[in-house]
Amino acid sequence: MRYRALKALATVVSAVALFLVSALPAWAADSITLTWVRHGESYGNIAGAGIDTKVPGPNLTALGEQQAIDIAQQLKNGGYDSIYTSNMIRTQQTAAPLEALLPNLPVYEKAGIHEISAGIFEGSPIDSGLGRIGYFLIPVAWTLGLRSLPIPGGESGNGFEARVNGVIDDVIANGDTKPVLFSHGATIMAWTMMNVDNPDILLMLTHPLGNTAVVVVTGNPNDGWMLRSWDGVAVSQNPSLGGQLFVNLRNLVVAPQTAVYNVVQAVKSRDVTKIVAAIRDGVVSVAKAGVDFVRDSVTDIARAIRGVLPGGAAAKPAATVANSIAAVAATSETSTGATDLTSGSKAKAGAKLRAGSSQAASDHNGSGQTAGKADGEAKKGAASNRRASASKAAA
């Protein structure tokens, strides 16, 4: 009786695992490298200026133009395969010198990587006052998993995540594996710390990104992202146990927020197919987040214990529990002659799905937010043509 119960449990676990895995879309498993570059100094960055997040935004200062030339020289031999900018003038002007040095690279303008909307804080002094603090603290809360929290009069963390992930979806669809993305300080800092598996939130506080600062992130939406360097500072690829458990908890609390957001966006579209898909994907992602949280947390703790025990002895990782149960059940079948219901139904333990995976997957299925996609999908022409059009937009 005991063995039959174990076999039944193994069958249920295997079936649930296969159902969860099959419900997720197939992403390219190859790792890509995202090189984020903050724009050069603009007239919105000089002393006494106000927070300016509206499109098209201010031009670069003379110093900013020189910074753009300098960063182009620094990046020109990096082996990049494409250039992306936001729809704001300051990122386009910063990218122009690199475009001139690498004229064969495709250039894309994407609204999805524009600056975080300041909402009611728009126009507040950048160097003093409560507006600056409010505009900064809410994105910090997003990095802690509170993505439903909106900037008053602006956007929520869910909306921000959806639009940036939409651009990354486009990068992958274009076949680019080493793009340079010219974006904005708050956008780069927030998206990075919301999504990487080795976040260091204190970097946002102690080392905020200056003009033309570079952040390098590697990975993919399915397996997760790792922060490699932050404005020239190498970041550890082996997060502490506390850091791992934080990411596990962050992923757990983000899943239902993302699911609700995607359902709301689907309802707004009034497309029944999208609504049904959003509800289905939401249920799957929330259920999977709970399973992943337990599995990842137990595995991380077991690894930490194994690392400090003499001889490397440790408890069995949680990721092997299902296989162990199935093995016991298989042994039972040999001794009792019962039918082996687990044959062909075992799910292998895969890579951890970290922050951003559920939302990126939902967006890929068409149930997520699509409003953040840029209008400028086509490859742009020479840098001079784009600068001319950008200046016209500013006027």
TrEMBL record:
Alphabetical list of SUPFAM superfamilies matching this protein: Phosphoglycerate mutase-like
InterPro entries per the UniProt record, alphabetical: His_Pase_superF_clade-1, His_PPase_superfam, Phosphoglycerate_Mutase
Signal peptide start-end: 1-28
KW Amino-acid biosynthesis (keyword) present: no
Keywords: Hydrolase, Signal
GO biological process: negative regulation of glycolytic process; regulation of pentose-phosphate shunt
GO cellular component, as recorded: cytosol
Recorded superkingdom: Bacteria
Bias (Low complexity) ranges: 381-395
SMART domains listed in its UniProt record: PGAM (SM00855)
Transmembrane segments: none
GO MF annotation: an example: fructose-2,6-bisphosphate 2-phosphatase activity
Record's compositionally biased regions (Polar residues): 336-345, 356-370
Location of the region described as Disordered in the Swiss-Prot/TrEMBL record: 336-395
PANTHER family: FRUCTOSE-2,6-BISPHOSPHATASE TIGAR
The protein's name in its UniProt record: Phosphoglycerate mutase
Taxonomy of the source species: Bacteria, Bacillati, Actinomycetota, Actinomycetes, Mycobacteriales
